[in-house]
Amino acid sequence: MKTICVTGSASGIGAATAELLRADGHRVIGVDLRNADVEGDLSKPADRVRIVDEVTRACDGRLDGLVPCAGVSTPAPNSLIVSVNYFGTLAVVNGLRPALARGSDPAVVMISSNSTTMTPGLPVDEAMRYLNSDESSVLERFAAPDGFLAYPAGKLAIAFWVRMNAGTPDWIGSGIRLNAVAPGVIDTGMTRPLLDIPGVKESLEHIPIPLKRWGRPEEIARAIRFLLSADSSYVVGQVLFVDGGTDALLQPTAHPHPLP
Ligand code: NAD
Prior knowledge:
7 strands
């Protein structure tokens, strides 16, 4: 039995992941705004510190897995998208690294998105800004009117962060495997309300999905379970697209990308 922390455990992909892991016999420490073992707001720096402390105490300082799943998207304000999806996520991942280093075959599965490869012309610089700037600078950037890139750029930054850090002494050098999943459109509390926003329903319907349907939260949960488990013991630094084929359809030759 492993002890695994799942943030965003009260809804959608996080709830499905927590349920699957518990059904497998693992102990899950759920984190969310409410209805969780540890409650707090990942957009708030003080809460991030308290959440890391409470999870560390709850697992007696030894954590075997982490799924930082909490997140928000449009129509949430950009300030929340920036602070929860990227800076809140990284605060939890970095804050729990010492407990993960003491865990058994520890693994982290972060949540990116196929909006990273599906958003035409998404500037890579916007993701680099997340990686290279502090929270207030990124908040200031996305307070601008063209700040609609906050979500895909933040998710691209999460994918880059995984690939940049997975092979380093702090992570795999401490025995911790870092990977990510990049979901397509998944039927959750995040996406369902979008159908009521005029224009958004139509643009969602235009997304080409070879499987011809939205994904289900448990389909992402099963990919996360694989990346947490010993079945993926040699998988390090990968971003697994779980999107019904959209990424492959739109950019069949973009990946793998040979060294220049
Ligand atoms: P969801 O809304 O069903 O669940 C998100 C959970 O995060 C909720 O329980 C919510 O309370 C929690 N949360 C939000 N803000 C928080 C905060 N400030 N502090 C603590 N917890 C907070 O959404 P979901 O679809 O399950 O999304 C889960 C993750 O998957 C997110 O990171 C999202 O960006 C990502 N994702 C979702 C989709 C999709 O189509 N649903 C696609 C790609 C990526």
